[in-house]
Each structure stands twice: as C-alpha cells, then as structure tokens.
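Reopening this one. Same input as before:
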Amino acid sequence: MPLEWIFFDIGDVLIDESGYTRWKKEFVLRCVQAHQDTLTYEDVERIWTSASTQTGSLMQNAARLLLPNPEDATRAIEAIKSGQAEMNEARKQQKVYPEALETLRLLSKTYRLGILANQPVETKQMLADAGLLELFTSTHLSGDYPFQKPDPRYFLQTLKDAGAEVTNSLL
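Same output, byte for byte:
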C-alpha cells in the first residue's frame, strides 16, 4: 500500500524544547530534593529516558524513579502538580524550528500530515501562530485523550480518528 500519511511528533521535531526540557528537569529536581537532598541534576538526567518510556506523566515518573520511598514520591508528585502555572510560563520557552514551515508545506502537497505528540492542547495555538497547524489533516495531541505515548491506545485512537491505516502511514 502506498504511503498516504506522515505523523509527526512535536517536541524537538517541530519545536525546539531544549530550554523547556531543562526547566522540567530542574523543576523535578527541586521537588524531589525536598525529600532527598543528595539528588543531583545528573541523577535526573540518568533516569529521564527511562521515565519517558513509561505511560503517564514524564515528570511524575521521574519523581517515582528518583524517590524509592512511595510517600516521598507521592509528596513530590503533588509538588509537581501544584506547579502548573510555573510550568505554563516555562513552556513559553519553546520555539518552532524555522525550517519546519517550509518542510511541512512541501510534504503536505504529497501526503496527509498528522500529529502524534505528548503535548497539551494549548500547543495547537503555538502551531497555529507559526502557520503550521493548517498544514495538518489530523491534529490530535495526547492532551485530547485520556492516554498518551507510549500507550498503544493513543497511537491506535489517533490513527482511527484521522481515518488513517497503519499500513499506509509513517509514524
């Protein structure tokens, strides 16, 4: 079957998240150090990839991996959740890569484009402001669903909602 769809992640693919990712790691460190002050930024870096492969919130997963005591992890997670306003402000550090618009315009002439990304629904506004959102046929972010990557339900539901088949899609 010929390729019809190309689905894109957003973070560090269309948007430079490097500053925001550093902020998230530093924020997690502040929250977990309240319970184990010997933890370092390097500790957070060490577990970050592992935390990202688990379902659920990356930052909360990181806290669980860093704090073996469940009560400490729960309190750190509550601190992470309570930092939503600070997180929203830090998210503004993200910038669309300049070459993303030209690349997507070119690809959209041949393929239907979709998004597969663990992003809040507010990210759509950033994409719209940069002229990218209109190039996508499917714009379902994990924030639109009760599950996210790497949960297979997110991939399957996004494809279903787009009307795409795995056999003709590049994910």
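So the earlier flakiness isn't reproducible anymore. For the record, The helical segments are 18-33, 41-52, 58-66, 70-82, 84-91, 98-108, 123-129, 152-162.
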